[in-house]
Amino acid sequence: DIAATQIRALLQQGKLEAATSLALTYDLPLSQARKLIAQREASAALALLEPMHRRAKTKGDVDEQLKIMVLQALAHHVIGEQSQALQQLDDALVLAEPSGFIRTFIDEGAPMAQLLSDASGRGMMPAYTNTLLGAFAVEHGSSKKTGPCTCRACATPSRDVERTRIRSVAIDRPRLLESRNKRATLRRLKYRKRAQPENF
Fold first, then answer.
1. Which of 19, 129, 195, 196 is 20 to 30 A from residue 136's alpha carbon, by CA?
2. 186 contacts: CB under 8 Å, gap ≥ 6
3. What letters, b where the CB count within 10 A reaches 16 and e where it falls short, cover 42-55?
4. pLDDT score, position 182
5. What is the Cα–Cα distance from 189 to 147, expressed in whole angstroms?
6. When comparing pLDDT for 139 and 42, which is higher?
């Protein structure tokens, strides 16, 4: 699950090579399909997803069916097959609405936001699509964003690295001041002391 989340975040940031490398390390068919969709290899993605969808439907696994159907809709969407994409999305919405699935949709990032926006514009399950777009706006900052998403949720790996770097600098700061700026720091402290009023 952690690897799948990392791959999804990398793909949404446009880091295809890193996502491909991680996907090859694990046997994650859905992540492989996402990678193919990001590379606009929709036919390969659909060929991978179709037998998975049949198996999930036979097992009655609604959660798995929904994830696959969402990716099938995206695969059609990214290559401009909008009627097929909207039909697949409609089937996914019908399956998802009774249980109120949200995360399955908004985790797919900007392409799904655009597809949901198109569906809403055509009056497709308006209450549910508007709920999903509202949730997407909260999560990603905009329901109509295009290009790699740079929101907090999608950029978590890189932000974690940045936080680690900042913490490291904060921990080392006293030592850095002592080794690099000791004399300058002492001069500033002396100046401030002289500048302060006597009753400070």
1. 19
2. none
3. beebbebbeebbee
4. 52
5. 49
6. 42
Evaluate whether 31 touches 23 at the Cβ level (below 8 Å): yes
Query: By CB neighbour count within 10 A (0-12 exposed, 13-18 middle, 19+ buried), where does 189 fall?
Result: exposed
Look up residue 23 and give its amino acid. Answer: A
C-alpha Rg value of the chain to the nearest Å? 24
Q: Residue 127: which of 65, 11, 119, 146 has the closest Cα?
A: 119
d(CA 67, CA 175): 50
| Contact assessment for residue 147 and residue 112, using Cβ atoms and an 8 Å cutoff | no
What are the pLDDT digits (tens) for 115-135?
999 999 999 999 999 999 999
- 3-state SS, the chain, equals CHHHHHHHHHHHCCCHHHHHHHHHHCCCHHHHHHHHHHCCCHHHHHHHHHHHHHHHHHHCCHHHHHHHHHHHHHHHHHCCCHHHHHHHHHHHHHHHHHHCCCHHHHCCCHHHHHHHHHHHHCCCCHHHHHHHHHHHHHHHCCCCCCCCCCCCCCCHHHHHHHHHHHHHHHHHHHHHHHHHCHHHHHHHHHHHHHHCCCCC
